Structures are given as C-alpha cells and as structure tokens.
Amino acid sequence: MPRDGSEVYYIPPGTEGIPDSTIESIKYNEFVHDVEQDLNHPRPIVAGGTGGSTEEEALFNLSGEMAYQVVTNFDTHPYIPGSFYADAAATAPPVAGHAFAGIIYQANLAGDMVVEARDLTTGVNYIRIHSGGVWGTWDVDNTSQFVKKSGDTMTGPLILNADPSSGLGAATKQYADAKGAFTPSGNIAATTVQGAIAELDTEKVAKLGDTMTGDLTINKAIPTINLKKTAAGQNNTIAGYNNATARWVILLGDSAAEGGADAGSDFAVQAFDDSGAYKHQVLNINRAAGLIQVKGDPTAALGVATKQYVDGKAPVAATAAEYIANSAPTKMLTSGAVWAAVAIPATLTDAATVTPDFNLGIDFAWMLGAVGRTLANPINFKVGMKGMIYLTQDGTGNRTITSWGSMWKFPGGVKPTLSTGPFAGDAISYVVINSTAIYCTFNADFK
Predict the structure, then answer these.
(1) CA distances from 332 to 111, 131, 316, 338, 379 (A)
(2) pTM, to two decimals
(3) What CATH number was assigned to the domain covering residues 345-446?
(4) Higher-scoring residue by pLDDT: 344, 233
C-alpha cells in the first residue's frame, strides 16, 4: 500500500480521474482495493491511529498502561506496564497457592522491567526483575533493609523511643544508668560474683581441650558425636588408653588423601603395644568399596578368615579326563566334568584287534572296516564302570567281530551277530562286574 516513511497514505500515481476522460477499470479497481487494504490496516499514530491491531499493542504504542491484566503464568505472560491480578492457581508465583495483585514497571523498549507482586494472603510485597531477556528470582521487597523476626544481625544501633514500662520491655541506656552501679553495701560485691564465676568454671569442660572425670551422657532422640578434621592428611580419632598409655585407636576417616570417586578417609582400627607405640592396623574398611580387610590369615578356629585363606581351602575340581581315569580321587567332582565325560564317545580306531582304554572314555564309537575283527579285553577298567559301545558298519557293510576277549559276557554265553547293512548301527551296553567279567547286552540295527 502506498505509504511514505511516516506511514502516511498517498493515492497511488495514475489513479486520479481526468475530466472528460474514460476511467480505466484496472487502475480504478487497484486503487479501490488498495484503499480497502489500508482501511483494514492498523492506523499509524501520525495518521490519527494507534499503530496496533490489539488493545495491548495500541496501549504499548501510545506508551499507555493497562489496568487489571490477568496473569495465569508469571513466566510467560506478555507483560504491559500497568496493574495485574493473578489468582491462587497461577503458574510460577512468588508463593504457591496464594493470589497476588501488583504493578509492572517498563524500563525500556528492550523488554527490561520490574514486576511488583503483593501477596493477598500475607500482604508481603515481592519483586522480580527481567533484564537482558532473562527473569531473575522472586525476592521480598527491601528485605535487606529490615531485621528478620526469626533471627538476624543489625549493623547499626537500635534506638528505643522510651524507657520500658513492663517487666520484659527492652531497656534504654538511660534507664539502666538510672538504676545506679552495683555496690557492696546494697548489692552483691563484684569480688563475690567473680569468685562464684571462677568456682563454676572449674565444673565446666573447656572448649579448647580438657579432661572430664565423669561420664558423658547425651540424652536426645538421635544422639550424635561429630568429629570434623580441618584439612587433608588428618585423622578423625577415638582413642582408648590404659591410664596414660595408648592401647587402641579407631579412625573414623584416616589420613589417606581424598582424590575423588569416594577415595580416602577410610575406617580403621589400630593396636598399640605395651609402651603405647603403634603396633599394627588390625581392621580397615575402604570408604569407596565398602570392603573390610583384616591384618592377616586366622590362626585360631574362630578367627576372621581372609579371602586368600578361604580360596586356599576351596576344593579343586577334577577334569573330565581325571574323572574318567579316576586319577584324582581327592578332587571335587562337578556336574560339568561329568557331562563332559559322557558328551562325546571316545573313538576306537579300527584295526584287526581293538583294545579299549577305559581311561579315555565311558562311551566308545567304533566303525568297523573289515571282516573278522577282534574286541580284546579293555585296559584301565574300574569295577562298577558302566557305558556304551556303538558299532557302525562302514559303507560296504557285512563287517564282523569274530573274536572276543574273555571278559566280555553276554546272556547265555552267546556272542552277538552284528547288523550287516552299510552304515548299520548296533550298540553294546556294559558294566564292569569285577576284574574278570564285563556283563553286556546287545541291541541291533538302530534306525
């Protein structure tokens, strides 16, 4: 729309009518539409308007103030200079659950301002400053200028307006001076008071170090003794003495440097010899790990055992090979070793005569490669040993065992006839009865 730099409207060039001339519809319509757009645009202040499309914009442009703004969120409200109200449900108030009324002071066009909010419950006035695009925290207005009722320190003298008239009234200097000095004639003598104080002092424990002759009892809900070391390399110590000779020291945080990650200031118990000299540290608890460490391995039945001592007593587990060979009878047997022993049958290498070594397996697999094989008595067998021998024909088949060792016993004394088909499978189950007999059963042609 044709406005100059001051927002003043001018007729677009070429739209004014010329007498006795035809009006061009295109230019006329453009002018009418331009006027329509201009009339619906916020009027500039120089043209009698406010320059704003909302009440808030108009007030701001005219440097006006807005009364009774309703604030629902103190952090995000678009503040305009003037007054406001916020009910108890507003977000981010100075005090949660309280309603507030207050004033907004605008400092500049950059948005710097001060919000003053008075608590409609307590009457306390709070202020909050917005500067450089950042809100500060809520503070009680002029709180640094007053003495707190709950306890505070004055930096200047307190002047009362009159002398006290009641028993607990604060006394002025002139009131105390008028009561006169204490004298031996009418009052307690100063020397008497000083003597009484000195006598009472002997009944107290000095803060800088002293010796109590009686027991200390702390009687409260949660009794606490606080030991506070002041620098690195120091100990928090509780010591036990035999008369004047040290016997035990408990360190509630030793002198180990604190290097972060909870390191240092560990717990410890230390022992001292008959002369009161340090002897050894009998117990340590690492502050970071929480683990307890003692001086050494136990020497008595009820002594505390160290990890290294317990590890040395743990039974050693036998391997599968040791279990099969019974070569480590004092070692512990684990289920892992047992299953490893039976998981894969030991291989019997095909030959004219095959002698099983019962130290190499419990179950055995034999693929026969020729006719007329001999199964000799096993070696390294153990009485009571049980297992399986799997017999498999090669790709040709018709392989046979024609000779058996004397220990292999079958029902009725009849030695088995093997299946003949290529890759046919048979199985012999066995149990070692004694040094001369292995009882067997035969199952043929597994498919």
Answers:
(1) 82, 78, 6, 11, 25
(2) 0.37
(3) 2.60.120
(4) 344
